Amino acid sequence: MEEINHRMVRVSGINIHIAEKGEGPVVLFLHGFPELWYSWRHQITALSSLGYRAVAPDLRGYGDSDAPTPIRSYTCLHIVGDLVGLMDALGVEQVFLVAQDWGSWIAWYLCLFRPERVKAFVCLSVPFSPRNPKMKPIESMRAAFGDDYYMFRFQEPGEIEAQIAQVGVSVVLRKILTSRKPGPPCLPKGKEFRDDPDTSITLPSWLSEEDLNYYASKFNQKGFTGGLNYYRNLDLNWGLTAAWDGVQVRVPVKFIVGELDMVYTTPGAKEYVHNGGFNKDVPLLEKVVVIQGAAHFISQERAEEINAHIYDFIKKF
């Protein structure tokens, strides 16, 4: 880990922390919630050894990057703006994109808004989500999954942060990162992160106490509000992206998901991925890979497999 270089880059009026290693074409890694650049530690090492320059930022609001106070500073336009600014700061016109969870959501926006900046995209966990012009996302999710659905529960500023503070950062991270429950993920009010009476969860082989302590140290320092603000802009993003309604994503894509992933196991997801909807919206979708027995955080759980999948795809371009 000491061989990975760290520095701050000034983009869009804020400081973004990046971890980078290697020389060659840039592979830009985007983490999810509640994660950091650190989730790509295995991929940074692997891809840099194969002739690529691996770059993984802490996204706006996370880790050592700045976290602006206004909730509206976390729209898709802000985050994509950060990424375009980062590419410019790196001195590259195009990148290979690899993303997971919320990082994937932002990556889809980047591919939609600025496809000329992306050579190819390896997407983990979260498929493209076409805009529904008739209903805002939060209303739609609440109608489908109820008031306990986690994205709905994240909407009220300060509410879920208070619950996390009560339970403890390390306990919450341990529960989220090791969860293998099928979707849709729900957080019943008053029982947030308390559904399992046994708080001494044994960590899997792919996540050490040292790893967990690194995540916890950064979230204790920065808090969760920045990351939660991404969810709080879902409806605003819907309004801001009306001009792209119905537009296809025209970037070469490989989609990889764990069989037990909470997104993939949410009702409707498998049908969209496998029954033609995904291909219609993303016509350059080249391959869908379902990793048996794997859950949501596959860049860490199945690091070697993911490294091979990334390389096998991007080496073609």
From TrEMBL:
Instruction: State the top-level EC class.
Output: hydrolase
Organism superkingdom: Eukaryota
What pathway does the annotation place this protein in?
Answer: Secondary metabolite biosynthesis; terpenoid biosynthesis
Hydrolase among keywords: yes
Limits of the AB hydrolase-1 domain: 25-155
What Gene3D superfamilies does the record point to?
alpha/beta hydrolase (3.40.50.1820)
One GO MF term on file is: epoxide hydrolase activity
Question: What residue intervals traverse the membrane?
Answer: none
User: Which Pfam families does the entry mention?
Assistant: Abhydrolase_1 (PF00561)
Keywords annotated in UniProt: Hydrolase
Kindly state which reaction or reactions the protein catalyses: (24S)-24,25-epoxycucurbitadienol + H2O = (24R)-24,25-dihydroxycucurbitadienol; an epoxide + H2O = an ethanediol
Q: What is its EC number?
A: 3.3.2.10
Q: What does the subunit section of this Swiss-Prot or TrEMBL entry state?
A: Homodimer.
Question: Its family?
Answer: Belongs to the AB hydrolase superfamily. Epoxide hydrolase family.
Function recorded in the entry? Epoxide hydrolase involved in the biosynthesis of cucurbitacin and mogroside tetracyclic triterpene natural products (e.g. siamenoside I and mogrosides IV, V and VI). Cucurbitacins have cytotoxic properties and exhibit deterrent taste as a defense barrier against herbivores. Mogrosides are nonsugar highly oxygenated compounds used as high-intensity zero-calorie sweeteners; they also possess pharmacological properties such as regulating immunity, lowering blood sugar and lipid levels, protecting the liver, and acting as antioxidants and antitumor agents.
Q: What is this protein called?
A: soluble epoxide hydrolase
Species the sequence originates in: Parasponia andersonii (Sponia andersonii)
